[in-house]
Amino acid sequence: MKSLLAESPRYHPHRRIRLLLGPLFAIACLLATLLGVIVLVLLLGSIIVAALRGVPDNPWYALGANLQEFLGLFRKYATRIRSSDPSMAGFKIGLAGSLWLLGLVALIGIPVGVGAAVFLEEYAPPGRWRTIIQTNIANLAGVPSIVYGILGLALFVRAFGIKALALGPCLLAGVLTLSLLILPVVVIATQEALRTVPISLRQAAIALGATRWQMVRGHVLPSALPGILTGTILGLSRAIGETAPLLMVGAAGSILDLPRGPLDRYTALPVEIYNYAKLPNRDFQVVSAGGILILLTLLLSMNAVAIVIRSRFRRYH
Amino acid sequence: MSHPSAIVEPPRPGNEADLWSGHNRYLAFYEGIVTVGLVLCALITILTTIGIILVLSAQTFEFFVKSKVGVLDFLLGTQLRPEASPPRFGILPLIWGTFVIAAGSSMIAVPIGLLSAIFMSEYAPRRLRSILKPMLELLAGIPTIVYGYLALLLVTPSLKALFEPIGIRVETFNVLSACIVVGVMIIPMVSSLSEDVLTAVPRGLREAAYGLGATKFEVSTRIVLPAALSGVVASFILAISRAVGETMAVVLAAGSRPQITLNPLTSAETMTAYIVSVTGGEASYGSPEYLSLFAVGLTLFAITMILNIFSGFVLRHFREVYQ
């Protein structure tokens, strides 16, 4: 039996407004969230359209022909070098530079980051020093990337004016700068991965007579490897998209030769994109769109690898 | 045992001749080397901070000595003409440009980011959330140069199409398009950081409110949001700090003309854009113009550091602790 009392407006103040506000708010929240997705689609769509603007149009339903043209676009931009003629310009030198940077940062920056994380998680006893290093890493993660560029410029490129130590605007200076830049990302991700390894695994290793490093190398690191790899890939994809610090440490635009070693001059893909994008001639916008397509393809495939690793090898959850 | 470092290796018997005792000189030496190596790795992170502060302050000092500009003239001067003679180094226009763009972009990012965080923590079913979250992460991973390009390709032409017919001039490089792209860029940051703190609010609070007859809207805005307010505000401050330090999107969208103006459709220059333009220019090593880059860099570093530390302070001191 329904009570008449419970239906009276006294127990349902502002009932209509409340019932109306709820769904309206939900819709606003949904729209705000979808905005992100819309922006993503808009961004990719407009860049693809801009990149295709240069080629003759096929009707949209001629999928095979369009796809072929699209792939041809990649080949075209990846094999041509910088040129003042928009129809001849490409990103070969920048792409090679970026791949060099990627490889060398993986060789230099990643081990240091993983080492620092292992020290903080497995060796350092909780206390003042550990807190200081930890706070410091959290602060470094918030430093703007251009400040790292300034550091690289003064420290690696110029060495405070000491000629014998200065590297000049070479590949190695860029690598060292980017390595410092991604250090906090790698350290924080690796620490999180190490924390998921159960303590009993460590106790078992030690109980069987392993030394600390044997325990870390033989048991903790292999168990945490998927997490570490994910963090590493995130760090590397940050490094490959950075432009500002590379502009500071001398990735110049007008390089026409492939770099042959870490002491050669170089340029990077995002730097070349920037150099084309700032030109007033609108034909060069098509060229930059092509470069962005290459860059995003590189980044998306790296992210996809990270997602696969994360879902495949998730161990302790 | 809470922390791995609390695990202690058992003492080993001292008989070195006995292979089975587990004591091995080589092993002990190797162990020591590895430990030293790991300590060095951790020290590099400290050295980076020291290096940044040292480089910036030493070169800034040199700048003030060589250019004979006073600190107050530098921070509050309204004229920035490094190539004029005598050169003028007043960076107030740069600070103005930086703050206008940071304020404008957070006006876009804060409400949208917060609403989408509420949606993901309160409304979205688990399946939808597992699709949306990686998408936002993807959006956060797109390089800033792409956003800058987007400003030139899409945003500025749209603004032109919108405003020019009614007689308002829109410059190719303008503050509004910079605000829009930087705002869109930092939405994922606001929403993912806020979502983390909203999700961490204990379930019991929500259920108590539902039990008293609150609607979902009331629970989200009057129970969950106030409970997580410190974390949400901290994420706003971090996003503003990110907008202050943003470089490439601003360089491509807002241009490089240092001026103090309220008109969002004209171009402006930020601190980061000035640093880029000095490096790209003809300034010779050791000249006051070259050194001014470090002084501006120090100002930028100080502002972002203060914002980051303030954000941590808000998070720690205004947090409501629930069991």
- From the spread of the alpha carbons, the general shape of chain A counts as globular
Supply the number of helical segments of chain B. Answer: 12
- Could you say how many structural domains of chain A there are in total? 2
- The CATH architecture category of chain B equals Orthogonal Bundle
What are the secondary-structure elements of chain B, in order, as H or E? HHEEHHHHHHHHHH
Query: Order of strands side by side in the largest beta sheet of chain B?
Result: 1-2
> Fraction of residues of chain A in helices?
over 70%
Major β-sheet annotation of chain A: none
The SSE string of chain A, one letter per element, is HHHHHHHHHHHH
**Quaternary form:** heterodimer
Number of E-type strands of chain B: 2
Mind telling me the C-alpha Rg of chain B?
26 Å
| CATH class category of the largest domain in chain A | Mainly Alpha
- Name of the CATH homologous superfamily of the largest domain in chain A: MetI-like
Proportion of beta-strand residues of chain A? under 5%
Provide the β-strand percentage band of chain B. Answer: under 5%
Which stretches of chain B are low in confidence, meaning pLDDT under 50 for 5 or more residues running? none
How many β strands of chain A by DSSP?
A: 0
Classified by CATH, the class of chain B is: Mainly Alpha
Keywords:
heterodimer; A: 317 residues; mainly alpha; MetI-like fold; 2 domains; 12 helices; B: 323 residues; two-stranded antiparallel ribbon; 2 strands; 70% helix; flat
Note down, in words, how this protein is organized.
The complex is a heterodimer of chains A (317) and B (323). With 317 residues, chain A is mainly α. Chain A folds into 2 domains: 13-52; 92-312, MetI-like (MetI-like fold), CATH 1.10.3720.10. Helices cover 71% and strands 0% of the residues of chain A. Chain A has helices spanning 4-7, 15-52, 63-79, 92-123, 128-140, 145-157, 171-195, 199-207, 212-241, 244-248, 269-277, 283-312. In chain A, helix 4 crosses helix 7, helix 4 runs antiparallel to helix 9 and helix 6 crosses helix 7. Chain A starts with a helix and ends in a 5-residue tail after the last helix. By secondary structure, chain B is mainly α. The two termini of chain B are 22 Å apart. The relative contact order of chain B is 0.13. At the A-B interface, helix 2, helix 4, helix 5, helix 6 and helix 7 of A face helix 1, helix 3, helix 4, helix 5 and helix 6 of B.
